[in-house]
Amino acid sequence: MSRHLPERFALARARAVIDGIDDGLLVLLAARRRLVRTVARLKPAAGVPPRDLGREQRVRERARAFAARLDLPPSTAQGLLDLAIGDACRQQGLVFDQGQGAATGNALIIDSIMPTPSLLSPMTPQLLRLLPPPRRIAPLLRVMPLRWQRRLLETGMARVLAAPLLEGELDFMHGRRLAIEVTDLRLRWVLELQQGRLRVTDAEPEASVRGSVTDLLLLAGRLEDADTLFFQRRLVLTGDTELGLTARNMLERLPWESVPLGLRIALNRGARFARAARTAHRRENS
């Protein structure tokens, strides 16, 4: 056994160095997370959207070039960047999917279940133009009994907001009423927190958020940020501004991973489909 002692000693030293490097990687990742928090606070003031895909692309290109100089396999560098960027997105409550960069676990599941309209076929734009725009569907939706609309909306909100409701983050809505207006579908619901759940009420709202069904879906599906939508007047806040902004800020802080996967699929892909349909109709009318 004595003849193996030098090799074992060298192995132990090499492993100790690897452990030190691993510790260094964790320290660097923790430092990166602190910087991400700072960047997330600075983005709104700088007029930069929460998800900057151009920046991500530049980071990836620089990493690939640097990895080549270090003789590091491209797949290893790519995996490390996916880890760092995915962690930053989750930290900011942003979706990290294949349509917005490299994919991680849930994103791969979403893309495998429900392809985006742009990938369906070259005929997709022509087919989407055949669909009636939302304003033509509005009369059909008004046929649906109001109690069905309320039940669907309340059930959906209970699932999406389960964690914030449990943690009391929506307590500011006690005795307050916020309306959501889907302008092109001519739908309007007034929401109030009652007995720990958001309910649809007939009372007059203190504040209202108005927007098209497509823009509201883009916001819910994390494909557009609220600051951009409000700045471009695609969403409009009226009435008690403080109430509306408080609700908006709470939703922006909602961790995307806390939303059930099936609902994330529906929101994300529904928003993509609605956006593609709107683009097809606009091209037809231009």
TrEMBL record:
Residues 5-96 form the Chorismate mutase domain. Keywords: Ubiquinone biosynthesis. Pfam families: CM_2, SCP2. SMART domains: CM_2 (SM00830). The keyword Repeat does not apply. InterPro entries: Chorismate_II_sf, CM_dom_sf, CM_II_prokaryot, SCP2_sterol-bd_dom, SCP2_sterol-bd_dom_sf, UbiT. The keyword Amino-acid biosynthesis does not apply. Pathway: Cofactor biosynthesis; ubiquinone biosynthesis. Required for O(2)-independent ubiquinone (coenzyme Q) biosynthesis. Likely functions as an accessory factor. Belongs to the UbiT family. This is Ubiquinone biosynthesis accessory factor UbiT. It comes from Rhodanobacter ginsengisoli.
